[in-house]
């Protein structure tokens, strides 16, 4: 490593750290992304002069960068804001795949009996990178609804996964200790891909963000391992930074859902629901109250405090602009309006903030759960738009429920609760919500955007 | 354990602590952009992909190099662009004043 490269990598590493730091505060977040991107450009440009390109290699790189850059830019620009979680999964997966392929190439180059210091990180990168690739693709498919979002389970699943993991471990030992055929890693790669699929299948769509975050950390580690193989400090430092911060972020996310990471990964969330949900088979007979747009408009217009609880349904219906119109209209009439943002509202922590920010909802009106939960009891109306699980009192009261223990928004303490929902269908977690049947609750059925538009017109008239 | 490996291992261990420390105070609202930003940073594997592709001279190494470069570039470019798209919505938050809510 020449001095220039060493310094460039150091600068890049510092820029990555500063970028992450800035990304952790709302003010500097966008600059943080630029800072990290600058570090990336410096690291890449500094690497180039050292390489000896073959003609084929040069063509491969140019073609690859053009294709990859095109796909990345178009994909990231075209994706709808609601589909961002699966886009992140996709970008993460391809990174893991790249890390595994880099390790494969190095292993091939070393030929028979590679030195342990190179073989070990290569094998590690192949396994972790492949798991991350396959797992991310399943996460993408689940969120994109290319396949069912509900957990896919079968008897003895944990045992089968355990056996695959054991087989991988055995293979690793074989490749490291006795392998004389460089291609023995192909079996390893196949097994790791299978494990990646098998590991994400039993996890429900609602838990996908946590899984994506975990796989993101995995890719970071795979990249770091590839860095050890290539003796490249930039890869080691950047990959490890992501591995470490991604692991912490994963923990923060599962904490926000009130569950342990182990429970998210191995609990086959939703499977338990057959118990309480089946027992409550007669629930449909309970009556619900619904109201017209005019009735609701009157209720809202003459309230003093309204708290809006946005959920994924709002995002799907692209209703973030409509909800802002309603809020502005109410504010003009002197109603105090705030938004209560559950940590896992939408499909990813922070997802809802991104969507509402897109609609120019003032930052100060977005209140985090801890900040606003005490205020529900003073609110005249809690307007729940396309949310369900995050206001389900079962999380507090029924220990048998799969979401028991998850912190929820205290919408049930408001004087009136208005639910905007398409139907009585349960939320993403597949659990019935008693709050829908509460005497204080008024249902307003329909697509969130249509409903809000009707409501806006009705408030104008009120 | 040779010197270079020891150096690398030192960097590795220190980077773990920095990585944990640097994001420990992130507010919930930034979880998604942060995840996306870290996702872009591990796109640094593009350097590894370029290094292995540079010396490509057989059909196998060409194929491996090409796929690795495509995947890694998609990761790094897509990662930074999609993060920026999320974050550009947070800009100028202080500009639109809350209409006198009272």
List unreliable stretches of 5+ residues of chain A: 269-284
Assess the beta-strand content of chain B as a share of residues: under 5%
Strand content of chain A is 5-15%
How large, in whole angstroms, is the Cα Rg of chain A? 25 Å
Give a quick account of the main beta sheet of chain B: strands, pairing sense, barrel closure.
none
Q: What would the principal axes of the Cα set say about the shape of chain B?
A: flat
Instruction: Give the oligomeric state of the chains in this entry, treating copies of one chain as homo and distinct chains as hetero.
Output: heterodimer
Neighbour order of strands in the largest sheet of chain A: 3-2-1-4-5-6
Low-confidence stretches of chain B are: 92-102
Domain unit count of chain A: 2
> Helical region count of chain A?
18
Give the radius of gyration of chain B.
Answer: 20 Å
* Helical percentage of chain B: 55-70%
Number of E-type strands of chain A: 6
Secondary structure: helix percent of chain A = 55-70%
What is the chain-wise order of helices and strands of chain B?
Answer: HHHH
